[in-house]
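Handout, section B. The chain below has 128 residues.
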Amino acid sequence: MIIKQVSVFLENRQGRLAFVTGLLAEKHINLGRVWFADTTSFGILRLIADKPEEVKAVLAENNVTATLTDVLAVPLGDRPGELARILAKLTENGVDVEYLYAYLTQEENGAVVVMRVDDTERAAALLA
């Protein structure tokens, strides 16, 4: 399934992450998934939220750089080899994975992999 992800560019300084999440909390925006990676000078916060367009607007109003990106959310069983299977299928069909992250679901033995790929529509069709 194709979903919207918000990517937020943050300076790597104390309180910046708290500032951004506080802005969203004030607007009652639910953050379903959060992933953060940083370097010494900046970080990228990736959010799956219930109102992605509103997230982007709230952040823009507060001079925080954010973009909306289509990503693929792929449910898979929580067992050895599932990730390798879907990645092999994408590779065999010429789809490049730029990054991914995963999380377990509340369903028994369930997981979801969120992927940014170079051809989202094609990847979604391959994995449907």
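Note. The two ends are 8 Å apart (CA to CA). Compare this with the example in section A.
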